[in-house]
Design a protein that fits this description.
Layout: H1 7-17, H2 29-47, H3 49-53, E1 63-70, E2 73-83, E3 86-95, E4 102-108, H4 116-119, H5 126-133, H6 139-144, E5 149-153, H7 173-183, H8 188-204, E6 209-219, H9 221-232, E7 238-242, H10 249-253, H11 266-269, H12 272-277, E8 284-289, H13 297-313, E9 320-325, H14 333-343
Parallel strand pairs: 4-5, 4-6, 6-7, 7-8, 8-9
Antiparallel strand pairs: 1-2, 2-3, 3-5
Helix pairs in contact: 8-9
């Protein structure tokens, strides 16, 4: 007799019975610092940073491609080398009326075929225009209009880093890039996070950019990179992931997501609240919608309550905030920017 197999029940049992190797367990004081350092090192390894480093060092070699005057700011296009033989294009937005050195926002786009062009509000289709008007996904343009210098990179698989003919959906860019990355001990999320962190080296070359006042925000897949980058790099002084933070069980396991969300072994380390706990005691805003179908609000609230435990242990009980907007999977600018301004 063949017994029926229920995959959902198997995953639920695995989640219940798997004790994370580095989940927070009430540590305080010096022990909390040790917990953060240990988990941070393990997270970098799980994302595939040792494999990325193994291909060898490289000079950043920044190259400016073009400069375009916009209404109230300049938009410069640059590329930098983040790995030997591989360059990442990004926009640098500089407001006309800015401080010197200017505070910096790293704005990470979510899933979109045009990558950074959506973040700077440069749509190609009616669908893109709707994503800007209704979903508020022109994150970089929002930031520069508030007086911040902005770095808006292409994530691997999108924009200029999207191979011709490859789409985002199943069988497309993210799936193939994730599977191929795993062959070499990497992950696509790790490669994208690596690229973002290399941009800080670019900031350090610019006397007009304030490397001591750095914020990072992103939408959806860009919020995942935002969270990983801020967990690993303590230089980010304000962090605001948008429509991503939840529990792994309620979101990544329960709902069908793009393959780039599945970092091999990450759930074995801890929960998403543990990863976010590496940001403590720095200001962290979790922004989400009360009707987000793929990152359910109940799971986000449960994860946030656990996150507050980490912040209390770090001596910053009010350092993390939860903003819940009315709506679905969109960018909540009305929550993000007041938070960034208050701390940056």
């Amino acid at each position: 007799m063949t017994l029926p197999y229920n995959h959902d029940e198997r995953m639920n049992a695995l989640s219940r019975n798997s004790r994370p190797l580095h989940g927070y367990d009430g540590q305080g004081g010096v022990e909390f610092d040790v917990w953060q350092r240990t988990l941070r090192a393990e997270l970098a390894e799980t994302l595939g940073f040792p494999a990325i480093r193994s291909v060898g060092p490289c000079d950043l070699d920044p190259r400016r491609i073009e400069t375009e005057a916009k209404d109230g700011y300049d938009r410069q296009k640059w590329t930098v080398r983040t790995e030997p033989g591989f360059r990442v294009p990004f926009y640098l937005l500089l407001p006309d009326d800015r401080q010197s050195p200017a505070p910096v926002v790293v704005a990470v786009h979510g899933h979109t075929d045009i990558g950074k062009d959506l973040a700077v509000g440069d749509p190609s289709t009616d669908e893109h225009r709707t994503q800007i008007a209704d979903e508020r996904r022109d994150v970089a343009r929002q930031a520069v209009r508030r007086g911040y210098a902005v770095l808006a990179p292409d994530m691997r698989g999108f924009g200029e880093l999207r191979e011709n003919g490859r789409e985002r959906d199943r069988g497309g860019a993210c799936r193939e890039m994730q599977l191929h990355a795993q062959l070499f001990g990497r992950s696509l999320a790790g490669e994208r996070t690596w690229d973002v962190l290399k941009l800080l080296e670019f900031v350090d070359t610019r006397p007009d950019l304030d490397g001591e006042r750095l914020a990072i925000t992103g939408h959806s897949g860009g919020a995942a990179v935002t969270l990983y980058a801020a967990a690993l790099e303590e230089r980010f002084s304000v962090v605001a992931p948008n429509t991503y933070f939840c529990t792994f069980e309620d979101s990544i396991i329960e709902h069908d997501h793009c393959e780039c969300n599945y970092v091999p072994g990450v759930r074995r380390l801890g929960e998403m609240s543990d990863i976010a706990g590496l940001v403590a005691p720095r200001p962290l805003l979790i922004a989400t919608g009360n009707e987000d179908p793929i990152f359910p609000i109940d799971g986000t609230r449960r994860a946030f309550e656990k996150l507050r435990e980490r912040y209390r242990a770090a001596g910053a009980p009010d350092g993390c905030e939860l903003y819940v907007g009315d709506g679905g999977h969109r960018f909540y600018d009305d929550g993000v920017w007041p938070f960034v301004r208050a701390y940056l």
